[in-house]
Specification:
Layout (H helix, E strand, L loop, with lengths): L2 H12 L23 H15 L5 H6 L3 H13 L1
């Protein structure tokens, strides 16, 4: 999958988690803009991992602050 396909997949996964209807852009932050708490993050990450058959380590999760960073990280993981 290329970055655009991964972006599209993650956008469909994030939809039910986006309770406030925030417009998703690369700079959209999970904590600030989307107001995800730790439980929501865990559920969201699990959905991505299941859909794309990858594992996002806790260390990687700690470094991801916005949507663009997430898409880039998943794109890298898909390439491994």
């Amino acid at each position: 999958m290329d970055r655009a396909e991964i972006d599209s997949t993650i956008r469909s996964i994030i939809e039910p988690f986006n309770k406030k209807g925030v417009v998703i852009a690369d700079a959209t932050t999970f904590a600030g803009d989307l107001e995800f708490d730790s439980l929501t993050v865990m559920d969201f990450v699990a959905e991505i991992e299941d859909a794309l058959d990858i594992i996002i380590s806790m260390n990687q999760q700690a470094e991801i602050e916005n949507y663009g960073q997430l898409v880039d990280a998943v794109t890298r993981l898909q390439g491994e």
